[in-house]
Amino acid sequence: MDRNFSTDHLIGNLKSRTVSSTLITLISQGVQFALTMASTMILARLLEPRDFGLLAMVFTIMGFLRVFKEAGLSTATVQREGITHAQVSNLFWVNVWVSGFVSVLVAAAAPLIAWFYREPRLVGITLVLSVTFLLAGLAVQHTALLSRQMRFMAMAVIQIGSVLAGVLVGVAMAWRNFGYWSLVGLNLTTSAVALLLTWSLSGWRPKLFTWNSGTRSLIHFGAHLSGGAFLYSLARGLDGVLIGRFYGAASVGLYSRASALLTRPLEQIMSPIEAVFIPVFSRLQNEPERFRRKFLEIYETMALGSFLFTGMFFALARPLTLVVLGPKWEKAAIIFAGFTFAGLLYPLGSCASWLLTSQGRGRDSFFASLVISIIVAGSFIVGLPFGPAGVAIAYSTSALLIQIPVYFWLVGSRGPVSTGDLWIGFLKHLPAWVVVCGVTWLTLSAVPNFSPLAQLAICIPASLLAGGAFIFVYTPSRRVVASLYTILRELRTPARSVENYRADGRAGVANPSTAKAGITVVIPTFNREQLVKRAIESALNQTVKAGQIIVIDDGSTDGTPEMCKQFGNSIEYVRQANAGVAEARNHGITLARHAWIAFLDSDDYWTPTHLERMLAAIKNTAGQARFYFSDVFRDNGTRDATLWSQIGFKFDGSFQLSLDATDWMLSRRVPASIQSTVFNADLLKASVGFDRRVVPMEDTELFLRLGIGGNVCAVNAVGCFYTADDKTQDRLTTKVNVRTENYWKCTCTLWRLVDSHFPNLDPSHRKIIRYNLAESHWRLARNYWRSGRVHHSVIPFLRCIKIQPLLLITLFRRRMSTRRQKEVCGPVFQPEP
User: Are 502 and 509 in contact (CB under 8 A)?
Assistant: First the structure.
């Protein structure tokens, strides 16, 4: 696959790429911020507030339609796991058509805009700036591919080069007394240069539009995102429209510059961070625990930084405004102060929106934007009678008291990151704002007669020292900074390389420099002195030897320790306190030193060629699969003695590699068994391993979590002899009684986790998952009913009906079909004793 579209090469050193990409983008944005701030300071002294107001009027109207230059399709390109040249080409042409249409629409509306604002000069400004929509649309997919490939150095060159060219043209025109046309030239030059650099550095060229290339789902996802963004832009741009309509160009100029003084630096910081982490989290969407852990690390870092700097900006609103914009902009100081509380919404709300985008939750994103848009529009209307400052204060108040709580609730209602996680990360660092704002305000009060520049020179170091002291003494904030320091130090450490490691966690053969070639065998046991001996011997007697055999004794009270000592150094015996099968296997995962891990229960045993066949399949497929599994002999007294024959799973050849094993995993029964499966070690160590919340179905949960949407390989051989020894008390392998309520509780938890792990599966597969979840609730309700606890059965029954209203009819039909099949086929064959 073309490297413009494949992301296989990224995941092996994803952490290092993330850190280095973040550093590159932050440096890039720092340069852009310096250029933008310098141009703002120069142009604010060369131009009048009315000149900025004219551009702000046009940009307010254009802002309503700006979302359509991308139409959400750049995010679709970045977020999708697998994408083709034809699909990206189709999205390119859709972007061109949409942005071209918007350019024509804006140009046609130029007279109407001038009439609305009662300002004829807006006609020419609108006509020229309408071209920027088409220029931006031509570069959308090229930029998306650069972001997908995490080529942030190229993106930095594009952004810095275009901004620098625009600033030079704008300042030169202002110096030559072109007035507001200098601002028009700045924006037009920036867009044109960005287009030229993007096409030059990307190297990708679209082909003609093709039908039936699988683009429809991408367009639907983009439509939800762009629809939600359009609603929000309508609401967010309403303030400029209302102020321009009722208070004039000068007031909207003050308002727009005060707003830009806060939002422009935030955009400079958040845009590159978002560009880095949406691709990263999109690659981790099938690893929920890792996704949650990484997200909360970034989220808490953003929360701490937001509280520190908004506290400082609120106290220093007046001197900051006077130093940056100049003395004639003093009326903008109170507007800037009013906006500072909204400064918390931008970074924290952006972080929360990454959850929706990276998980493909387009419909949820649209609904969240709709709700927030209504709240924003209402706040502007409430604040309008009090002038521009009243609008800013009303917006900030709604952001802090209404928008953030509502958005956290909507975003955290699904997925691995909950609403509680978001609130904990927010409130944990709230004291930082109080400390920094208080110290800065007291310092400013001590120097009231100093010049604004001198006040900043004194107060900013004081606020930074206060913030540093707070971090030093406050443990949660200190941990965030320590984590950030650790990440930055990793830039000096060469990244671990993994060949063929898929972008969504699909792993290949580990590099010998970091993991030894071969297989680690993990055998958990509990009070199986004689049976575990047979299991160990079957692992030792393989035609291709295992590189490492680990026996995890889960607190046995029989002679298991003495028996294991008989094998000497050929095995590694590890004893732990009794913790259960999931913890025993996870303990073995942490001790594994080889590229692949195989599990063998203590009452089962392998065929002599099991590992040989597995390693041959790994070699023949270049280690592309997440796991490799073979058939299991299950002597349960039926006609079909192997697992695959029981469930009807078969194929031709010695092995079969599925690039998307969703159909296998969601079939009537998972065709893999833990005793005959070999897993990629790096993948298991990066994920949560076996989830103890779903014991005794931790095996099934692991197969579903790794197999859905992933590369999986089936090896056509019997690899293991499975025995169910219920006479002992080995809780690790005891047969589960499916009639117990605990079993169905576990099943409900299992399918609920699977449902949350894969929110963007296609409808047919999600229907299977939802059906299984509903049936599990039904079985639990029926179990309660039969045991006489009718009141306990109500809640699971209602959940069943909510998820699948027609489930009872489906179950009845299935049962009648099974009865008819038994009447035709006769009883199940029973072998002679």
Answer: no
Gap between the Cα atoms of 781 and 696, Å rounded: 20
Tokens found for residue 498? 């993994």
* pTM score of the predicted model: 0.48
CA distance 43 to 152: 30
- Condensed to tens digits (0 to 9), the pLDDT of residues 432-461 reads 999 999 999 999 999 888 888 898 899 999
- In the numeric block, which tokens belong to residue 631? 């058939």
The C-alpha angle 51, 52, 56, rounded to 5 degrees, equals: 125
Where are the strands (E) in 20-171, listed by range? none
State the amino acid at position 134 in one-letter form: L
What digits encode the pLDDT tens for the residues 620-650?
888 888 899 998 887 554 444 778 887 778 7
**For the chain, counts of helices (H) and of strands (E):** 36, 9
Decide if pLDDT at 5 tops 70: no
Does the pLDDT at position 830 exceed 60?
no
Nearest Cα residue to 336 out of 378, 290, 389: 389
Q: Give the confidence band of 336 by pLDDT, cuts at 50, 70, 90.
A: confident
Full 3-state SS string of 233-269: HHHHCHHHHHHHHHHCHHHHHHHHHHHHHHHHHHHHH
Alpha-carbon distance of 493 to 491, in angstroms, equals: 6
* Centroid of chain to Cα 419: 15
Whether residue 476 has a cis bond before it, omega within 30° of 0 = no
User: Which residue has 């308002």 as its token pair?
Assistant: 255
- The Cβ of residue 117 has, within 10 Å, a number of other Cβ atoms equal to 22
Vertex 608 angle, CA 603 and 612, to 5°: 120
How far is Cα 86 from Cα 76, in angstroms, rounded to an integer?
14
Size (the chain), residues: 833
465: left (phi over 0), alpha (psi -120 to 50) or beta: alpha
Helix axes of 332-339 and 317-325: crossing angle, nearest 10 degrees: 120
What is the C-alpha to C-alpha distance for residues 704 and 757, in angstroms, rounded to an integer? 10
Question: Residue 579 burial by CB count (10 A; 0-12/13-18/19+): exposed, middle or buried?
Answer: middle
**What is the phi/psi pair of residue 340, to 5°?**
-60, -35
Per-residue model confidence (pLDDT) at position 218: 61
> Is the CB of residue 442 less than 8 Å from the CB of residue 459?
no
